[in-house]
Amino acid sequence: MSSKDARGDKGASTGKRVGGNKKMSSAKLSAGSKGPGGGKKTAGRPHRGGKTKSQASSRQRTGRPSHRGAFFDASALEGAEFIEVSNVALPLDAGLESPASEVNRPTPVLLSTGTNHPAPATPAASPAPAEGSHAESLSRTTIASALGVAPEDVASFSLVKRSVDARKKSNVHFNATYAVHIAQGVAYDALSPARGVNVRAYDPPAPLAILDLRSLATSSDGRIVVAGTGPAGLFCALYLAEAGLRPLVVERGAAVDERTAAIESFNAGGPLDAAANVQFGEGGAGTFSDGKLTTGTKSPHIRHVLEAFVQAGAPDEILWQAKPHIGTDKLPSVVKSIRERIISAGGEVRFLTRLVDIELAGGAVRSVVLEDSRTGAREVVEASRVIVACGHSARDIFELARDRGFALERKPFSMGVRIEHPQTLINRAQYGVAAKHAALGAADYKMAVRVPARANGTRADVASENATRGVYTFCMCPGGEVVAAASEEGGVVVNGMSRFARDGENSNSALLADVRPDDLPGDDVMEGVRLQREVEHAAFELARRNGGVPYAAPAQTVGDFLAGATSSSGQAEGKQPGGTVAAASEARRRTVVPGSHRRVGASEPHSRLVVHPSYPRGVVWCDLRECLPEFICDALAQGLPLLDAKLHGFADPGAVLTGPETRSSSPIRMVRGENFQARLAGDSSASNEEPATRVYPCGEGAGYAGGIMSAAVDGLRVAEAIAAEFSSR
Questions:
Q1: CA 393 – CA 170 distance, rounded (Å)
Q2: Residue 222: what pLDDT?
Q3: How far apart are CA 381 and CA 246, in angstroms?
Q4: Quick one: three-class SS letters along 2-38?
């Protein structure tokens, strides 16, 4: 478990690029950057003066690339103190030292209060490795080569973004973007960027502007109630608190420390706590996950969210990693720190407190009813606004919204399993001979294919526009574990998590197939929830029938799943945690050739892969088709060989499928207007009037996000909309 733009997702800003074969007409310069020296500016060089391109030509050195970019307009960099150099091919050895070391920690741009925020004068990026180190020297030489200057011409540099480029397994390297300060005396027209290298004026990301609204929040206003402490609720509440609006934050689950203890007890075989589990509690479902901070959408708020996480104790490398993550071992302290910041800014946070009713008057919220999750005691609280950020598993909130007349609609969601491999297999498949390089860490993947769709039993045929179904991987957890994510009695749900080090034996990811609204019978908006529950309960009973303890998960090897056989040999001898895997027999492993769906004989090649399932309550070898819908299983079976063609070994017959994964996203959306307020079911869809309910559906559960980052960004957007209402008074 979204909005990104070039600045937020790539460490870049709105300036035009120059260099390589791309022509540049203009560049946005760094605001407030005057640099040392001053004086008259000369076209084509920084204002500090310096050598021309011809004067610098004598400093060419061996090792410089022979093919430089075909066009470079140095005048576009006029007056810029820092330049942004992107698409720099960086050797792996340059990553052996973290540029975010303890002695060189970056100072992130803080969330600030006020209306006017000058851009930072220096790059809001990670510093270089320690001066004089091998990594620093290698990075400097690489940057200089990319710019066509000598290493001493690079006065300083900071890492803005870095990713792994493994498209050619024989040349795995980093692709980096830097903010670079060119040495005094070297003109920008002395630069000769290498082919493919892009250069522009560096534009630092602007901090988040939070208005001071304390004087506008009158005593006659009711409380602003934020329901849910997932990323959407936390970041919405943080903004509102720092704006002086003193939100009341309620969370049906427990505070993170109590929640952690309850999850550990459940993993060890204890009873399920309906108020403190992987789905419910401080931080939301994302707290016990990999903590991935990637998103496929655009927004400047992405940078603001990353900075807030760093301020709360997250590793500062998330500011420059192309695929940042925090890790489930670090997330609890991070979300606790954000909660403490909300309280210190004037907000109130109540745990084990459910939102059980929203009372309207004249079509707008008047009050809410809160209930103690342990005792059942209720309290009515006058409310001027309610932010519904309850997460995708708060199914009672969907029912409440329907019963109170809010407009709901079905939305697409997904369903499937967790697929588990040894991490070494994924490393080899992604990085080839470089797989063991210390700078790379655990490899990940993200894949999607489309397969022919079939009728699922609710329709006579498949409409032409829906003739294919998406099958894809989601929430990949390198070096991670499969998680017991149940939140309701009698249902099994799986998810995935990784710790910050990602150093576990296995990798896992969700392997999902689309569930479209027209896959569901009837017109009840709750039908998607019904299907989820049906599958979760069927999985619980399937594992029990096959000898499992409560909340053991059904599992099957890929080979047996494709062959339509129940796994019997298992993947490891002895018992798994929870004591629910029978001792492995010596029976021949059933295998299939990927793509053929046929069993191979003993003389034919077969999988030697051994996977030790990591699901903490233990797995039971079953036929997953007995708990998952037929159309989901058919799609997964068709998709596995296609995904294997993208990542060799993905559909290895020995890989393990554990199910079901049903909570990847919400099956319902609370309809809201452009002003972020919820619509009532009686509102005309053709009406141009914005709703005025003062109820704000927010985040993943309400149907407006798909992960930690997109949910946090949506929380900030809702908070900004509320702040704008106050400021217009």
A1: 45
A2: 84
A3: 14
A4: CCECHHHHHCCCCCCCEECCECCCCCCCCCCCCCCCC
Residue ranges of E strands in 229-307:
248-250
φ/ψ of residue 506, rounded to 5: -110, 160
Question: What is the three-class DSSP state of 721?
Answer: helix
What Rg value do the Cα atoms of the chain yield, rounded?
A: 27
Q: Do the Cβ atoms of 107 and 126 come closer than 8 Å?
A: no
Bigger pLDDT: 110 vs 709: 709
Contact 383, 625 (CB under 8 A): no
The pTM (predicted TM-score) of the whole model is 0.84
Helix, coil or strand: residue 177: strand
120-125: average pLDDT = 54
Pairing of strands 668-670, 408-410: antiparallel
For residue range 640-692, what is the model confidence (pLDDT) as tens digits?
Answer: 999 999 999 999 999 999 999 999 999 999 999 999 999 999 886 656 789 99
Q: What's the sign of the alpha-carbon dihedral 625, 289, 393, 511?
A: negative
> What are the residues facing 448 on neighbouring strands?
472
- The predicted structure's pLDDT at residue 343: 98
Query: DSSP string covering 484-517, please?
Result: E---STT---EEEE--TT--SSEEEEEEEEEE-G
- What's the pLDDT at 498? 95
DSSP E strand boundaries for 570-716:
619-621, 656-661, 668-670, 695-697
Instruction: Collect all residues with Cβ–Cβ distance below 8 Å to 232 and sequence separation of at least 6.
Output: 389, 698, 699, 700, 701, 702, 705, 711, 712, 714, 715, 718
- Does residue 347 sit in helix, strand or coil? coil
